[in-house]
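Try it yourself: sequence plus FE2/S2 (inorganic) cluster, in.
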Amino acid sequence: MNFRLRIWRQPNAKTTGKVVNYDVRDISPNTSFLEMLDILNQNLLERGEEPIAFDSDCREGICGTCSLTINGEAHGPDHPGAVCELYMRTFRDGATIVIEPFRVGSFPIVKDLVIDRSALDRIVQAGGFISARAGSAPEANSIPIPKYDADLAMEAAACIGCGACAAACPNGSAMLFTSAKVSHLALLPHGQPERESRVLKMVQAMDAAGFGNCTNTYECEAVCPAEISVGFIAKLNREYARARLRQNIGK
Ligand code: SF4
Ligand code: FES
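Structure, out:
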């Protein structure tokens, strides 16, 4: 298969970027999207040109490192899935493919397609630790957890922290990400001691990072490789309201 690629090139955060055209030829349909970029980079290196910087790590959809907007869609057209799980057979032979970094004000561009997503780390860090009893491990059945809660907590824990939700949102909102992280622990007994302080601090960190607010467009859910439901945003709002109420009563 042959493709015309239109790729965002930007030497660093301080320099203006631009779209540059590249042609790739004789690509197997079973080549992954990132392998196709590897092939392009190999060709660029052989021609003495600067390779294209892009992020990846596990290349199996679990680490959240890959982050490309392809033809205007975060993670490309094959949802649900991270861009490392996308294959060239998804595209028409001879197609023109536009490749950009995730465009979110809170994710500054580092170089080409690489962005700085440390704002998401700061939200998680703000949530802090959970209290856990030290000493020998408790008997496994001593903390009963309803199956519904356990399943829901597991669904929230599936978030891989890629930031596609913020990239797809017209408001640049990270509420799907934050709601998954807040809900995961709020649903479990282990997360109860810091339940209120955690949600208040994480929402504060989210706002401080400059992410926008949710206006229910559901674009985040549509692109999420982990299929995190927008229902968790409703839970985040409930958790936040509960925490503020208890804080005010406490005062
Ligand atoms: S909620 Fe989904 S899209 Fe957002 S960071 Fe988590 S896995 Fe990525
Ligand atoms: S490289 Fe790990 S999720 Fe894509």
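One thing you can check immediately is this: The longest strand covers residues 3-9.
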